[in-house]
PH domain-containing protein
Amino acid sequence: MTRVLLSLAVLAIFLLCLYGMWRGWRRRARRQAEVLPEFPQPPAETGATMLETTGVYVGTTIGDDWQDRVAVGDIGHRAEATLKLTEQGVLVERTGASALWIPTAQLDGARTARGLAGKVMTADGLLVVRWHLGDRVFDTGFRGDDKDVYEQWVQALGGPA
């Protein structure tokens, strides 16, 4: 009987922790929705694709804080993705989530990094695209299937921001 009660207590604590994390995520999304500008939608035609790679969209963070993940809408959700550099900007086509569009005029450069949005890799394991929207600066992280193309992306987007 004692084991059953102890097991139920541990389960209750676990469920309480999950509920707290869910509420915290929702509160963060509401708080950010009030202060962040609306993210641009991809245009119908993005122009010719100059670079393309597949991998995992890690997330988008605010400014220089590599852990301050954007939670508005589904932007904070990791997903398999295709990263495309087109004539008009950078398109992140995510599987099971909305696309993320960064117009060329808002691009501030790219770099490689070890971590972003709570995801930590080996040195230079992530490609990070820095961009701005209004007066806010964002970093969008992508973990490519082929890390050998990172240098091409950094050069094409203007080097470290």
Notes: The mean pLDDT is 90. The radius of gyration is 18 Å.
